Every structure is written in C-alpha cells, then in structure tokens.
C-alpha cells in the first residue's frame, strides 16, 4: 500500500469520499480546479469541499458568484483551454440555467471541432430527494442529460464507488455530469483507501448474484434494492442486483446477460415514471431480450408529479415494500 493510501485509517461517508477524491486530484494534477458557489471558504453547502481551499489555495478552489450560468460558462471555457475544472451546482434544481452551456457547448465540443478540441469538465450535482428540502432542491433529473449526445452521466451509490468514479470522471477527456445522491451522503461508511485508483466508467456493477429475477437501479435506491433482495431471499427468491452507476453510455450488455439468466426484471428509480431513464432500459430489454423474458418488465419509480413537501416525501420515493411487491408480480408469471 502506498504512503498516500495509509492516510485513510477508518471508514468514511460518501461525502467524505468525494472530498478525498477531489483532494487527490488537485494534489496530483496541476490542471484540476474546483469552482462553485461557496465551495471555498465555506466548503460547499454539503461540505464536500471542506478544507480544500485552506489546503490548496484560492487559485485551485474558487468561490464564484451566485450565478449558475456564469459557473457553467467558466467551466466550459477552462476545459476547452486545457484545464480540468470540477464545478459544483449546489442542488440538482439549480442545473437548469447551466443547460445552455452544457448542451450547446460542452457536449458538442469534440463533435463541433472534429476531435481537435475536447471538454474535460465535471459538473458535480447533489441529486435527489429524501432530505426534506424545498422546491428545486430535490430533483431527479438524470434523464434530461442521458438524452444528450456527448455527455457522460455518472451516479455513485457508495463511498467506494463515489471515490473511484469521481477520479475516473475528472480524468475523462469529455464532459461528465456527476450526480451525487445526497440522501446517502452520510448514511453509512466504508473503508476507502486514498490510493488514486479509479473505477471504470461505462460499466454496471453487479452487487449481488441471483438466478430468479434481475433488479436494476442506481444512486440512493441501491440501498433499498439490496434490502429488497434480502427480503426476497427469505422466501427463496434469488435476486440479482445491478447498480447501473454510469447511465450514459449504458453498459446494457451486463443487464442483458442478467436478464437472459433470470428471465425477469424490475427497474427501480426515483425519477418520475414517464420518460424516466428506466423506460430506456425497459425499451432495450424489449428490443434485445424479448425472448428471454418470462414476465413483463416492472418499474418502481417516483410519481409523475414534483416531489411533495414534506410529509409525503418518503411516500414518493421507491421503498423496499414497493420493490418486493413488483418482484412478486414478476415472479407470479410462470
């Protein structure tokens, strides 16, 4: 183990893994710059950048105006000139003023210049509900960005994957939307060696092997999906759990292989059902795995409403009971 890796003596949370990955890249790559609202002096609204400006200086960790459009423009400009900016949108609902720069410029840079320029930027986004936040602070808007050619969309579900995938995102030569499920920022801890080892992008992670049904999910819903698999196992139902992790480009081969084995699939996501990213996965299964299926594909999702405030918030989100019920419906088909 390297001297750097020995620095991590105890398990850390997902948000601490983000901080650890940012610090590693700033320290080891002079082109990496972190910027956003309150990321410097205050360490970010969720403290993902706590201590980084004090450690690396205000030329590497920059506080910006409270202006998402300007942040996005600065980020694209820096990236097109050889830097590796990591910008933060304070909340998922604050991304919308950034869309013009992300879609019209960052995502098109390589295409527009026929490969002469690229845009190695990362936009970090605290994502999703479950923290009793007001409007614009609990969006599950990943499907908007999975529809855009030229973007990678990544969502970690554990401290270890948060660290490894963020390192990979920063090192990637093209723009990455890196969505961090804030409901699980501090929910549990893992040992995360600070060794600079990136995890691969563009692959799904099979978190649990199974033979009867495939459960596909990402982000905060991984926890409930794994718990649902445990519950199903008590009744003799063997569930395979897949964490998509990189939504775009999608590693459909891993999903298809699992569906071919189990014949049944439940897709779980927090976003609204209509045109959510689960619909894309379900469509691909229908196109490529139809004759492997023993039952219709089930989806467990949010509702086609904005997430309610506040007492109904957890009712909106996928739950273990909802996932188990969907799996039982699929299993009822013989």
TrEMBL record:
Keywords: Oxidoreductase, Pyruvate, Thiamine pyrophosphate. Its cofactor is thiamine diphosphate. It holds the Pfam family Transketolase_C. SUPFAM superfamilies: Thiamin diphosphate-binding fold (THDP-binding), TK C-terminal domain-like. GO terms for biological process: branched-chain amino acid catabolic process; response to nutrient. GO terms for molecular function: branched-chain 2-oxo acid dehydrogenase activity. Its EC number is 1.2.4.4. Residues 12-187 form the Transketolase-like pyrimidine-binding domain. SMART domains: Transket_pyr (SM00861). PANTHER family: 2-OXOISOVALERATE DEHYDROGENASE SUBUNIT BETA, MITOCHONDRIAL (PTHR42980:SF1), 2-OXOISOVALERATE DEHYDROGENASE SUBUNIT BETA-RELATED (PTHR42980). The branched-chain alpha-keto dehydrogenase complex catalyzes the overall conversion of alpha-keto acids to acyl-CoA and CO(2). It contains multiple copies of three enzymatic components: branched-chain alpha-keto acid decarboxylase (E1), lipoamide acyltransferase (E2) and lipoamide dehydrogenase (E3). This is 2-oxoisovalerate dehydrogenase subunit beta. It comes from Solilutibacter silvestris.
